[in-house]
Amino acid sequence: MPLPRKVEVLVRKIINHGGSVYTLEFEISPAYTRFRPGQFTHLTIEPYRPSDGYWPESRVFSIASPPNADFVRVVYSVKGRYTSRIRDVLGLGSKCWLKLPYGEFIVDSELTTGDVVVLVAGGTGISPFIPFLLDENCGRFEKDVFLFYGMRDPSLVIFDRELELAETNFPSLKIVLFSEKQTTDKRFQIGRLDFKMIWRVIDRHGGNPVFFLSGPPGMIDNFKKSLINIGLSEACIRIDQWE
Ligand SMILES: Cc1cc2nc3c(=O)[nH]c(=O)nc-3n(C[C@H](O)[C@H](O)[C@H](O)COP(=O)(O)OP(=O)(O)OC[C@H]3O[C@@H](n4cnc5c(N)ncnc54)[C@H](O)[C@@H]3O)c2cc1C
Hints:
The chain has 5 helices and 12 strands. It is an alpha/beta fold. Helix 2 links the parallel strand 7 and strand 8. The protein starts with a strand and ends with a strand. Bound molecules: flavin-adenine dinucleotide.
């Protein structure tokens, strides 16, 4: 596992998705992007002097870009004091510091037991799955992969293009989208991520599933409880719980 390193980066792209959700893309040397899909980065907008050795206040964000690239992307929603400051302080060309990579929520073929990989993402919880879905080696991935991705509003599908790319690259991938808001877009089931429906699909498919859950704490707790109630062992449930 690569050791975490600190690096100053430049903001090269900002996307405002609406609903207080933003993408930030940073220019970075590929020497710093040898992370495993699913890992996260610390981000600080405070001044940092490597000679001091003291890492200032920061927040963590899942890395939503492929490994070994010359950029790092994160998607954040403005929740409290610090993410409001990130929105207000960082503009195109701004510099800030990252400390990466961290985390054990790793979605890849080597570390995943079972023969069906089930990714369940609520809102911006899609981020840690993106590096895995964009992985150039995914075509050789021998397990079946399902992505169930729920959002409040279809306009909040943040990674439309990336999901299309993943579907062409990744023959075994099946994507099911859920929107809480009514839509005529046929790709969506209407309503929240529905555990019973998801379990029916997975059960009918057969095999030994491993679930990866990423999103708000309420969603994760509900899914984890439901999976345990249905008899899935905790070893087959991986979670990326955000505060
Ligand atoms: C593994 C992981 C991945 C995450 N990935 C994402 C992501 O991709 N996108 C996203 O939007 N959010 C992500 N989050 C949540 C994000 O890190 C923030 O916690 C969240 O955005 C809260 O908003 P805020 O920092 O503005 O709130 P604030 O109100 O500023 O703080 C929220 C919490 O941060 C902690 N905190 C307070 N002071 C400090 C301090 N000095 N130093 C460190 N922590 C402090 C406290 O627990 C506090 O309750 C992730 C969290 C985790 C644990």
